[in-house]
Every structure is written in C-alpha cells, then in structure tokens.
Amino acid sequence: MNYYDSSSSSQSFDWLVFVVILLAVGVTIAGLIVWLVVFRGKTAKKKQRLRKHRRLNPTLAETGGLPPIRDPNQPPSGV
Asked: In the list 31, 53, 57, 58, which could disulfide-bond 62, CB 3.0-4.6 Å?
C-alpha cells in the first residue's frame, strides 16, 4: 500500500494526526498566554509598587547634596 493511496483509513489517520498536532499547538499557546497574564502581570505590578515606594538610586539633591568644601590646609580625617 502506497502512502499516497486515497483509502479511507489513511485519510482519517492523517486528519487525526493533524487534529492532535493542532490541539498540541493550541494548548501550548494558551498556556503561554495564561502564564504571561497571571505570573508576569504580578511581577510587573510588584516592581512598579516598589519603585513608587522607594527609589533605588536617589539623586544627590534627594540625599542632601555634597558635603561642604574642605580647607586645603587641613589633613584628611583618616590620618
């Protein structure tokens, strides 16, 4: 029996394989969409809330600026 025979059982088997592959691709895509919506959405909201609450790298103006200028004749404080 040749693969290209137009027998009824061969055609139904081809359709069955096609449907199984189509379902597998559909389930994979649906799982990816659910993962993106459920899990990635929560982490994005959590990171955004943290940034609103506390900035990770404050500017010098936010921390009080630079210390006063040191007298050049005064030795460093660590000596």
From this structure: 58
